[in-house]
Amino acid sequence: MIATKAYAAQGATTALGPWNFERREPGPHDVQIEILYCGVCHSDIHQVRNEWGNSIYPMVPGHEIVGRVTKVGDHVTRFKVGDLAGIGCFVDSCGECAPCKAGEEQYCVPGGALTYNSYEMDRKTPTYGGYSTHIITNENYTLHVSDKLPLEGVAPLLCAGITTYSPLRHWKVGKGHKVAVLGLGGLGHMAVKLAASMGAEVTMLSTSPSKEADAKRLGAHHFALITDQEQMKQLTSHFDFIVNTISAPHDYSTYLNLLNLDGVMICLGVPPEASPVPAFNLIAGRRSIAGSLIGGIRETQEMLDYCAEHNITSDVEVIDIKDINTAYERMLKGDVKYRFVIDIASLKQ
Questions:
Q1: Spatial separation of the C-alpha atoms in residues 234 and 130, rounded to whole Å
Q2: pLDDT tens column, 190-243
Q3: Mean pLDDT in the chain?
Q4: Bond from prior residue into 209 cis (ω within 30 degrees of 0)
Q5: pLDDT (tens digit per residue) in 309-322
Q6: Phi/psi of residue 18, each to 5°?
Q7: Each residue of 121-132: pLDDT tens digit?
Q8: Cβ contact 145:304 at 8 Å
Q9: Closest of 232, 222, 245 to residue 161, by C-alpha
Q10: Which of 39, 278, 321, 342 is positioned for an S-S bond with 156, CB 3.0–4.6 A?
Q11: 269 C-beta neighbours (distance < 10 Å), count
């Protein structure tokens, strides 16, 4: 067994703190990774605090993992010791259902094994995530990471990056499309960067005038205030796509009229309560509301390669692990631009 240091939540109302546990030795198809950086996703807070009602304790969060391979199983062919590697939101799937066979393992019908707050496919062994010093994964669920980019900026690509890249690719967003991004946070800032890099004309929709300069620095061509009724009127039937990253309660119908014929609002955020949608707002322009999760392994690797080629990383603030509870409180206040990343070296001291 491999002695592993971590930060864990022992319950829904307790702060995260040091916790030691043992990971299994790598099997013949596994790689052992020394974790270097782990991004902090808003879903970490939801799950640590049991806001989705499915939390398993003790819980070691973290599914935006970048590290270096330190050991490989006898049958591993895709990685060698010393390689940089990444792990995203899941570490296994059934491999037999239609989505898995199509390379869309994130939609595994019986449900895959999430990187943390989940069980391995035996449905008995808990999974522990990246707020830790080591992790063991099957090579088929491990990703190659380029050394061309700063690793701390790469880590959030394993969730925030692929969550925005996947729908942009699915709907073939590119040159000639007008895309609005709703919400400038961890997901929104990646949506702006990626959509602009793909050739789309990008508009940031926000309630805060102070975000205009940052939105344009990230690649947005235009900025519009949601609270300005005249601006909203001018944008009626304007966009081909709206990438909606907002997780706070909001009214979907407010934005549907901004879509043109056959326009699609792609929902990535998870509000805590349902939003009513008048049917006429959909019918009038043959508009659609759609959702998207992360990406499969193949598409996530494609995203990492794309970002390396186009010099795209997340904007991050690197923190020590001891500051994670403060980081959670700052995230809830929107006080981060735009992703916290834990330097796991601080856990090893």
A1: 45
A2: 999 999 999 999 999 999 999 999 999 999 999 999 999 999 999 999 999 999
A3: 96
A4: no
A5: 999 999 999 999 99
A6: -60, 140
A7: 999 999 999 999
A8: yes
A9: 245
A10: 39
A11: 19
Q: Is 330 exposed, middle or buried (0-12, 13-18, 19+ CB in 10 A)?
A: middle
Extract the tokens encoding 153: 């900026």
Domains of the chain are 2-159+314-347 (3.90.180.10), 161-291 (3.40.50.720)
DSSP bridge partners of 32: 71, 136
- Lookup: tokens for 249: 């309660």
Distance CA 66, CA 58 (A): 22
| pLDDT value at residue 94 | 97
Written as six digits, the tokens of 332 are 């809830």
Tokens of 43: 């879903």
pLDDT score of 68 more than 90? yes
* pLDDT average, residue stretch 283-297: 96
Q: Token pair of 111, please?
A: 């449900």
β-bridge pairing 90-92 and 84-87 = unpaired
CA atoms in the 13 A half-sphere facing the CB of 74: 2
Q: Cis bond leading into 338, ω under 30°?
A: yes
* CB proximity list for 242: less than 8 A, separation 6 or greater: 179, 180, 181, 182, 205, 255, 258, 259, 263, 264, 265, 266
Q: What percent of the chain has a predicted confidence (pLDDT) above 70?
A: 100
- Evaluate if residue 348 carries a pLDDT over 90: no
